[in-house]
Each structure stands twice: as structure tokens, then as C-alpha cells.
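Below is how a single chain appears once it has passed through the pipeline. First comes the sequence as given, then the structure the pipeline wrote out for it. We keep one example in the README because the format questions we get most often are answered faster by looking than by reading.
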Amino acid sequence: MKLLELLDRVPRRYRPIPGIVGALVILGETYHLDPPHSAIAYMIVTSAVGVGAWLGARAVLKRLSRSPAEPLKVRALEIEVGGSQEERSKAVISISQLLKERSKAGRARYLTLSTLEGGLSRSLIVVSGVDEHMVNVEYEVLKTLLAVTYSGVRIREVSDEINKILTLVAGSLGPSGRGEPLFVPAVDEPHIPVSTGLGIYIGRGFDGAFEKEVYLKLSDLAGHVGIFGSTGTGKTTTLGLLAAEARSLNINVVVLDWAGEVSKVLKSMGVSSYRELSPLAEASVNPFKLEEFRDRQDLLIDVLSKALGLSQPQTYILMRVLDEWKPKDIVELARRVEEYPEEARWDRDVKRGLLRRVDLLSRKPMSQVFLGNASLAQLEEGLSVVRMDMVDSIIARRAYGLLLLASMFLRRGRERPTLVAIDEAHNLVDDEDLLGQIMAESRKYGLYVAIATQSPATVPNGVLLNTNTKIVHALRSLRDKEVIEHTMALRPEFADRVDKLAPGEAIIQAPSLSSPVIVKVEFKTPSIKELSNPIAGEPVYTYANVPRSQLG
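Resulting structure:
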């Protein structure tokens, strides 16, 4: 109140005067006192009355001037940022910077609120202040800036119920500290690798004394990839990175996860855009009904023979059973083998040995692996992780892996290439090198193979020679080191480092690289990492009729 302000401006030595004058008048009229004879009494009484009158008047005026705190006026909008992940990340950083710069002008207080659940998110921007007109103007300015500046941004009004909640939040949650605001874009799609145009970002290496970024191109994957390293050196992590980021090259990926470790790696990396499939359920295949094996019975026999470890006589009986009875599933195969006539004495021992192995696959729960109707086309769509560790029997697991790989090899006419990433690949190889034979011919059918194994010495030469791209983590065995040195023709300075690489470091040799390079493998594309730095440049100012010089 203006009267209170005027009273506070009166010097303290003059403040008792009105009270003294008033007291003199009152006492003189009441008691008819003679002022000269009662000067001391007049002084004490009138001073006390004056001071009391002043304090009382001021207290009354102050109480009358007191008004309840004005509530914040709030306007909120919901924002969704579209485009590729790289475009969304750039837009989010830029929007956060825009809000920060506008808040410095003191026109309004901004609140960014995001909620996440199950891979979905929702983001709100709240504009608040005590001046309703200012809040409305700032709200409209912000909407215009977002709509004009960012083509991939969609803006929606929020409901009255949400506005009421945000009003309470904005009024009770004041700013503190100097940390950067957190803003999560509203998107409904999980992790999608970013295509940089350079290929798959693997990590940073050194070209002489200079650090450089290392990429693998689609042609490097098409030539097949071999990832080698002792336990704990990072080979499975590298395979998981390759599987996750290969999607940015517009190819499908199927992971044969022998021990369930690749799935753990993908989860630890925050990758959610993949499907986990069980060989006992949705990934179960019946090789006897697959069209791919209809005209290639010889390959089916080879796969079963290698998976079950059959001898030549046992393989012969298997071939006779398949030719004569054409069983429709693994259960019928076991029954037909048991019914196979024994023409000679040796037939009995051979048949019983074969039956013992086939019977293992025909009994539940193992038979579930070979009785399903999984579609290879659906299996190859996107990024699929087949959890082979859900199958207890090592023989059944190996048979399933080889059958699935062979059926994918026989599949023709796929619209886009498929990368098969095989962890612990030594479990699917043997001396006759079926995997190497598939790798030698699969490229022309759009099937690329990436293997990860602890020991290159246990891998047949055909597999090693067909992996044109090699990623070698630390190898402790002298035999493994020798195999890699000869296969890659490493220079002495690289050969000496094979057993000294730190976890996560690898020597990479690829057709797109002029020479091998030592790389620290990273699961971050440079395009995303660079976005952690604020976008430099002039802040945006849109205050109508206010000169720029007055904005500070």
C-alpha cells in the first residue's frame, strides 16, 4: 500500500510528533492540566502514546496490505520428436539449449517432464510464471519456434487434468543447482542403430600416432567375420555390437546364442529392438517338412550325420530310411530306424548305434526342437536371438544349430541379406568342415556369417580362410597365436601384441582397411557421441517490440 510506503519514508526522529500533538490535545481537554507545571509527565506520556500509536498504525496497515501469494500461471504442451535417431538426438539437444537460453532472459520458468515405461516415452514442456499474459505470450512464441525450426517435431495440447497436476508441480518444484536439464524425446520405438554412411562404427584405433575412427562396411560383413579371443577378452561383446549395429546397414540378423551370453550383452547395451526366440517353441523347426530340404536330401543327411556323430555305416542306414519311408518328423524317423530290416549281422550293431542317437532327439522335451513350424522368412526378419541354451542336450543343440544354418543356406530369393552371428562357433564345426562349405557359397545367396570362438586352433582352415574380416582379441594359447599369425600374416609388431591386448581391445583386419589396426571396441556411434556437446551458435530471441540490446 502507498500509505504504508509514505509512513516508512518519515525519519525516525519525527515519527513521535503526531502522537505527541494528539496526546497533548487529549490530556489538556480531559484533565485541564497546566503544561508548564507537568512538563515531565507530558513528555513521558506523549512519547509513549506517540510511539505506540505509530507502531499500532503501522501494524494495522501492514496487516491490511498483506495478500496471499499469487499462484503460478501454467501452460504446457506435449512434444514428440520424429525422424531418424540421429535427427531426434540433434533436435532434443537443440530444444534443450533453446529452453535454457530463453529461461536466462527471465521471462518464464520452464519445466521439462518425461516419463518412460516399457520402451515408450512421453515428454512435456511447461511454461510457468506469475503474469498470465506473459505466460501466454511465451507459450505461443515457443510453439512457433518449435514448429518453424524443427520439421520433425509434433506438438499437442495437454488435457485440463494434466494442466492441473503440472500447476501443482511447477509451483512446488523450484530450480536449484547448475546441472544440465534432462530432456527425453517422446518416441515409441526402441533402439535403432544409426547409419552414418561410413558403415558400422567399431571403435577408435591408431593410424601411426594419430587416432582414427574404425568402421566395418557391408562388404566386410559379406566376406564373413571371424571374432577370436580367450575367455573374458570381449569377443562376445564384440559379436553383440556387430549384431546390433548391422541393422543400420539394412540387413537382417539372426543370432545363434549358444550359451545365452549374447542376449545378456544386448540387454546391457540397452538394445531392446530384438526378439528372443526359443528352439523349444517359436523357433522350433521340422527339417523334414522344410521346403529347403525337399530337393537337397543329401544336405539333410550330411547335417544329421555330423550333428549326431554317425559312422559311415550308420549314415548309410539313415540314407536308406529317408529314401524309402520319407518320415515326416523326428519321431517317425526313430520308429523307421527301429523297423529297418537287419540283412546281416553287422546291421544289428550299426542300427542300434544309430537308433540310440536318433532316439535321443525323438524323446520329449528334445523332440519339441524338431517338431515346430517356424517360418525362416519370419525368423530372419529384423534382429532375432535364438536362445540355444534353452536346449539341455548338447547333441540336440548342435543338431538344431546345424539344421537351422543349413536351411537358411538353402533359402533363396531373400529380399535383403541376412547376417548369421554364431557364438561359441567351435561347437558347430568338425573335421569335415560343413560350416566352411556353407560359408564358401552362402555369400551369393545373401547369407553372411559372423562367428565368435575362444580358440581359432579348433576351427577348420576352411572357416578361417573364409572369414575375410577378422577381429582378434587377446589370445593366451601359443597354438592359437601361431594360427592367427599365419592366417592373418601379421607383422611382428602386431604379432607381439596378440597376447597383451587389454579386455575390449582387438586387432582388426578387413578388406576395407588398408592394414590391420588395433582398436578399442566401443558401443557408441560417433554421430551420437558428438551430440553430447551443446550445439554452438547464437541463441534464439523472439521478443516482440523489445530491442535486442535491452535483453541483456
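The first helix runs from residue 2 to 9.

See the next section for the split statistics.
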